[in-house]
Amino acid sequence: VLMRGGQRWRTLAGKVATGIPATIQAMLLARVDRLPQEVRRLAQEAAVIGPRFDATLLKTVTSDPGRLEAGCELLCDAEIIEEVAGSGSGSSQSYRFTQTLLQDVIYQNLLLQRRTDIHGRVGAALEQLCGDKPERLEDLAVLGHHFAQSAERERGAHYLQAAGDRARMIYANDDALRFYERALTALGAIGQTPLKLAIAERIADLSGPAGRRQVAHHHYEAVLLAYRQSADRVASARVLRKVGRLLWDVGKRDNAESRYAEAAALLDGADAPIEQAHLWQERGRQAFRSGDHSLAAKWADAALDCVRTLTTEHVSDVGRDATLVTAEALNTKAVALARLGRNREAVGQVERSIELAEAAGLLGAACRGYTNLGVLYTTIDPAKAMEVCRRGLDVARHIGDLGFQARLLANLAVACCTFTDRCPTEGVPAAEKAIEIDRALDQREHLPVPLIVLGQIHQCNGRPELAVGLFHEALDVAREMGEPPLLFPCYDGLATLNLDLDNLAEAERYFSLAQGICAQHGLDPEALVVLPFLD
To answer: How many secondary structure helices (H) and strands (E) does the chain include?
Structure first.
């Protein structure tokens, strides 16, 4: 987008999103063509560095460093570049192009081979300036950018992957995805190298929670095929576990179970305690969602046994991963114990999970802990439940995790509407926001929860016409997912709602369905009424 500023035109939002009209290109290039050849060359080298550049870096890159100062003065006189105010005191002078369009036109009109060569020189110069092991996100990103446009594309992909990893550590997941996608583009049509597989798996890991399940599934399947061909059993098992989670979340439970079973077979006899623990923890979580709480607790204990002898010092990757699976398994065990009536033990397990996760900076795992702790406190101390949910929401918002924001908002709505007067002011808006997020992310595994919560609120406040639509929508999604803990509150809610409306036949039908789902899966109806929304 072009915007006039005084006597100059500038582009908004950084890069030009569409092609520059030929007449404007010709006008801008004419200004450059009037310059001496060596000054034109300097402008081209500066344009490859970017819209803003440092004189020290340009001196390292340029083919004629002795003429740098004079060349920059001529470019300033021609209003091609300008000094950045205050940049020369105590450090190298910085410059910027007077128009972003001008820098872009100069760059785009370079021959590809020359552009590629200059990018390589810029990357090499930046490596000298940044040291052997750059750690700053900005340094990794700029190194990745230049090498990815050079002849050393794989080196660029390494830096872009590192930039993505660093962005992911600070929960800038959108930025991380962009870095990973650029890294994959840099690698182009080369075969499935270990680097390419690692990047593709990272893209899949972030795409699923962002609602891009098809993208995630596509990358996982491509990576899985490569690991199978190379007979990497542990890596194959890891990806199968992740695919299983994706399938389960869209209601394809049989397909998910087959992936978990295949992963378990691959890990049989393998020395991979952490991956085995992740798989057992995942099996426990799915057993819980199926209503088999005793089995869920056993799987969680098996996961904890796998990593019990490993260090949970989170300074190492192994320690961090061991801490993550420990925190998750404690959570899974806690929700299973709660449904088995052992609430005091459950609270202790969740609190331990949060403590471990927060100490290691594993804030996603901490959010799951806050989600469950909020539910456990709802019937004991609604005020404390609200406090826990708000604390968890702060963490979820800090890391930008919309999935857990929806869960915590739904639980906050329940807490606000349980023995408090904050239902209209805080409870209803929280439930409505949770529904909005779940729909936006297509979180069908959770969407029934805020629909049920809002339906219950409307029912309690004498608005059955609003409640009935919400319960039916929740039931449609819950049937698709096939999870008993989601189906029961739908049936139970519709039963009580029809009872209030004197539709006795319908009330009896839904009560029968609620009792049937409990009998079929050996569930305690009272536990589901009191603690319906554990995760």
So the answer is: 26, 5
